[in-house]
Design brief:
176 residues; alpha+beta; two-stranded antiparallel ribbon; 4 strands; 59% helix; 12% strand
Length: 176
């Protein structure tokens, strides 16, 4: 190798190092810009959250007030229907109805109920139910490479992540 070749090689190495530094510098500037944008996003979220709290409080109080009025009016309509003795009343703004609901059976003490239920045939048999165990299926697929019928295997995705430093705290975020 000649003296000229050595000088050219040293110049090329210096140029490559300078490019690496410029790329690292640019990457650091981008990371700083990402932190600034994240801070602005956090401010916007905080402001929106406060507005949402105010609106939710208004919604809750207004709906409560209106619901109390509605309940009072429907109670009075129910009382009126009971005094008329009618089951259905058609009015210009709607229909009032009184209908008897269905009876309901609730088993409170199963042990006391079972002997009589067996004699009267009030019990039904439920067949076994099956639920797939996902971990053994995953292990089989990764071990053999074979995917069983009726199974879909979705491989894991590579995710990009970054970290920013904010006053001693580290904020990490994953991007899809």
């Amino acid at each position: 190798m000649t003296f000229l070749d050595e000088i050219l090689e040293e110049a090329e190495q210096a140029e490559n190092e300078r490019r690496t530094e410029l790329n690292q510098l640019r990457a650091d500037q981008f990371l700083m810009a990402v932190k600034v944008l994240e801070d602005k996003m956090a401010e916007a979220n905080a402001l929106a959250d406060e507005e949402i709290k105010i609106i939710e409080h208004f919604r809750t109080s207004e709906l409560d007030r209106l619901d109390r009025s509605r309940k009072w009016m429907t109670f009075n309509l129910w009382q009126y229907m009971n005094t008329t003795g009618e089951k259905t009343m058609r009015l210009p703004h709607g229909i009032l109805k009184l209908r008897k609901g269905r009876d309901k059976v609730v088993i409170e003490n199963l042990e006391a109920f079972l002997p009589m239920a067996q004699l009267r045939g009030w019990l039904k048999k439920t067949p076994e139910s099956y639920q797939p165990m996902l971990q053994p299926i995953h292990d089989y697929i990764t071990r053999t490479g074979e995917i069983p019928d009726g199974v879909q295997f979705i491989p894991a995705e590579t995710k990009f992540s970054y970290e920013t430093v904010k006053g001693g705290d580290t904020n990490a975020s994953d991007e899809e």
